[in-house]
Amino acid sequence: MKRNTLLDWVIKPDTHLERVKHAEHVGNIWRTTILLILASFLIYGWMAGIGMGSALISPSITDVSSLEYNTDKFWFVIGRAIFGLIFAIIILFLISYYFYLVTELPYRKLVLMQQVVFMMMLVERIIWIPLYTYVGLDWYVSPFSFGIIASFFTDIHWIEAFFGSISLFQLWIIYFQAKFLLKLSILEKYKVWIAIILLHLFSYVLVTLLTYFDKNLMDWWF
Amino acid sequence: MKKKIIRISAITFILINIVLLIVDDGKIDRISHVKEWTEPITMDMKEQMEKDAIISGRENPLYFDKTVGSFQQFLVEEGDRVNVSDPLYTYMVNDFHTTWQNISNNIEMLDQEISSLESIIMEMESYTIPSTNSSSSSTFSVDNTEYELNLPDDQTASIQSELQKQQFILEKEKELAEKNAERDRLENQLVELETTGDTITITSPYEGVVSHLAYSLEDPFLTIMDDSLYVEAELMEEERQQVTEGMDAEILMEETGEVWEGSVTKVHEAPESLSVNKHSIYPVDIEFNEDQTLEEVLPGYHVDLNITLKESLSAVVVEEEQIDEYSVWIMQSNGIMERQLIEQGIKSDDFVEVVTGLSEEQVIAYGDFSQFRNLTPFTTPLDLDKVTWKNVKPDNANWQEHLVMGLFVR
Asked: Å from A97 to nearest chain B CA?
């Protein structure tokens, strides 16, 4: 299926869903998969190239030479791009496998679902870019997320990050996954919902943990 | 229906967030996105005043006392070069005896001055500088005039005082020569008077060019511009307040590209003309420094003048565009941006001296100031120009740490 059909999922999800449900064999998913992985690699690399997320390197600007400073940033960018790659693989394949275990639906169809999910995630990240460079907002205080509201109630960074990881995009993804799975599977409604919500909660907690340990992790590792 | 509600709630949600962003006064974490940054420069700063100026020679005016005699004729013309003792003009004396007496008296006075000068010189030459270890002041007098020498107290200083002594002697010898020349001229006038019975030829006491000659005999009827050149400029009222004697000045001749160094020797206190309606103009004299050589330079040449009003050596300097109103944005070593008020000093071209608020090791951000927020973490983009394989290869770089950082950062 071509890339623009991914957009169809957003615009006309129901018709598409019907087709998928009744399709015996899902077509070639590899092209889209590769495109998404590549896109993720590039987008994350691009974001890092702009400087997003490199706040940990900034303090060394007065300590090291400008050449070394820039080299540090280069490897940071590489690391970030690799993360983008790994991230894509996890979302596309690992999460699909999780749902496979839960619903026993055909794996390829689940991958299709995750492709749509991942595309939305990439869109969200792309939106983060101008928010960062023009409004000075980091990811967890995007106006699409609950991070801003959380900031008004607390100063604790990890709480802000937790709520910041719940965004409109995330909610749409939950809605989409629920719709998809419910349509295709005969599993009880509540089980589907629990599976989805559990997954997402787990991901928010993971993100929050990483945020919390950002600096400490680096110090511990090296 | 359900779709509509969802759509509206989503939009409302975003709007609420936007409103919160607008009213936020610090609760929402921000970052500063820095694309251009630099360390300040250390350089010497000068505040200079540029003026047009003209090279002048010292003008020596001569006057004619009509009571002494009646003018006969000029022996030179305007523009002539004259040396010392060249005849300038002649006049017929009114009264032989008075004139003769005057000249003789003058000669006598000169003789006295000459002999006293000669004895001063002799005394100084025979005076040896004592090598004492204590500061002492020595005085000696010649002909009721006291001369005092202050002697400083160490070996290098005694060389200095030897130099001072020689300098003193030289000055006095110069004076002596001038007096002798004057005496000779007067002697010649006397002889001429005695020979002709009524005419005296006045000769030039100066060497230079006749710059002004008035046939009307209006005083000063003869002006000789001598060869010692200096530079003259005109200062407006506001400018005069900024210039003081002693300031360094640069003199540039545009046509030849020659540059000389000089200093302001006199800022005239009285304007050329006093009028409520006209701007007051004050002349200012600049003399060339002693070591400067002037070749083929004539009075009347126009030059450009740069007077150094203020100077600050090894000042911390930033470019004008790097200042955000009255502050600079400092990228601190803890990764946080700080807006710092600075006190500005001398401005020159696009550079501004920072008197307080910034030191030379600090780093400042500039460019798009709207992206800088006070007391927020800053990040900088990667500079692809600086990325070459040689720079980034694993052996040279701390790559592991930063790669992992890239993997785990959120």
From this structure: 23
